[in-house]
Write a structure and sequence with these properties.
Layout (H helix, E strand, L loop, with lengths): L2 E5 L4 H17 L4 E6 L5 H7 L3 E4 L11 H23 L4 E4 L5 H11 L3 E5 L6 H6 L6 E3 L9 E3 L6 H4 L3 H12 L7 E5 L6 H9 L1 H6 L3 E5 L14 E4 L5 H7 L2 E4 L3 H9 L4 E3 L8 H5 L1 H6 L2 E3 L7 H12 L2 H14 L4 H23 L3
Parallel strand pairs: 1-2, 1-4, 2-3, 4-5, 5-6, 6-7, 8-9, 8-11, 9-10, 11-12, 12-13
């Protein structure tokens, strides 16, 4: 029986690929032990148990960014946390540690190195986080979602996707999706989403230009986020929804997507062969812009800076694009050629490679 420890969490960007890999490992080997390491504060504290997967939580220990007491106490707390995870690895006889980034990954890598257990890393963003930059120093089994991610030994494996996205047949499910979502079958659909919390810049611009978009012969399916106060205006063909837990239906109905450029969004949209307009979040270290770089450079999507995504830009640039169906079809074909649905299987294969290499190394050293 193989025993896996999957470390990561905090946000959906870390938790969702972790869950996809965890479920695939259990599907192919019912006897395997899959344990997830996370924190009580992260999204994993709810999502992992919901999937029937065992979760062990440890203290959340962010690296202090400023001088002070927290920075002075950090080395002692890190040592204690690494020891706690090391004891877990030994007690549960873990065979491999797989990290997806987030607060728990860095101490998990250090504990695995101390226990001489192989390490596998998956980096979801084009700009890697601090934990995975550290972990990549200790292993050559590093999988990344995007070409050009600067990590040692990086191999492009794609993004582990949710099963409902990985197996989605958009053509077959489109008619059903249109019916369920209350959309007209005779008009193309522009899907607009800023994520679960919404994106005010996108929401305001699309809302202001909604009459122009509908006037171009399209219908809008606008997921505004749970914090938004936007509600249906009564404009025919403009559908506003606070939140959707069936993004598979939304993607099935869509002909073009306007969205932020989070790693999961870009990976899912390109894997499904959907053309897109990406509006990267204007904070952070520029990872959203980098996430979309390859598909934009190839011509499968457009990128518009947050400050430039206005109602005027929509009227001047997006509305004319909506009236060029051949160009949209070409963008879709390019996106499909860049995206992959094999991210989960590729990551699992990387884990297998690490286990085989560790087994061969132990044999050479005469260890069981």
């Amino acid at each position: 029986m193989t025993r896996y420890l999957l470390a990561g969490g905090g946000t959906a960007g870390h938790v969702n690929p972790l869950l996809a890999v965890a479920e695939r490992l259990r599907e192919r080997d019912a006897a395997a032990s899959v344990l997830v390491l996370g924190t009580r504060e992260g999204l994993e504290s709810r999502l992992v148990p919901e999937r029937g997967i065992e979760l062990v939580t440890v203290a959340r220990l962010p690296f202090p960014r400023k001088p002070g007491r927290a920075l002075i106490a950090f080395p002692r707390k890190l040592r204690a946390l690494v020891t706690e995870i090391y004891d877990l690895i030994v007690a549960r006889e873990i065979d491999v540690v797989v990290g997806f980034g987030g607060y728990v990954s860095a101490p998990a890598y250090l504990a695995a190195r101390r226990a001489r257990v192989p390490i596998v890393i998956h980096e979801a963003n084009a700009v890697p986080g601090l934990a995975n930059r550290l972990g990549a120093r200790y292993t050559r089994f590093v999988g990344v979602a995007f070409e050009g991610t600067k990590l040692p030994h990086a191999t492009v494996v794609g993004m582990p996707l949710r099963r409902e996205i990985e197996q989605l047949d958009r053509a077959r499910s489109r008619a059903h999706a249109l019916t369920v979502l209350g959309l007209a079958p005779e008009k193309p659909v522009l899907l607009v989403t800023g994520g679960s919390l919404g994106a005010q810049r996108i929401n305001d611009a699309v809302n202001e230009a909604s009459a122009n978009l509908v006037g171009a012969g399209w219908q809008l399916f606008h997921i505004v986020g749970e914090r938004s106060s936007l509600r249906n205006s009564g404009l025919p063909g403009y559908h506003i929804l606070a939140y959707s837990d069936r993004m598979d239906l939304a993607f099935s109905a869509a002909d073009l997507v306007v969205a932020r450029a989070g790693s999961a969004t870009v990976s899912e949209v390109t894997a499904l062969g959907l053309p897109a307009v990406y509006v990267p979040l204007a904070i952070g270290n520029g990872e959203q812009r980098r996430n979309a770089r390859a598909v934009v450079a190839a011509g499968g999507a457009l990128l518009v800076e947050d400050r430039d995504f206005t109602a005027s830009w929509i009227v001047d640039e997006l509305v004319p694009l909506l009236q060029r169906p051949a160009e949209i079809a070409s963008m879709a074909a390019i996106a499909s050629s860049i995206g992959t649905r094999a991210g989960t299987d590729n990551t699992v294969a990387l884990i297998d490679d690490a286990l085989r290499a560790d087994g061969a190394q132990r044999s050479r050293r005469g260890h069981p």
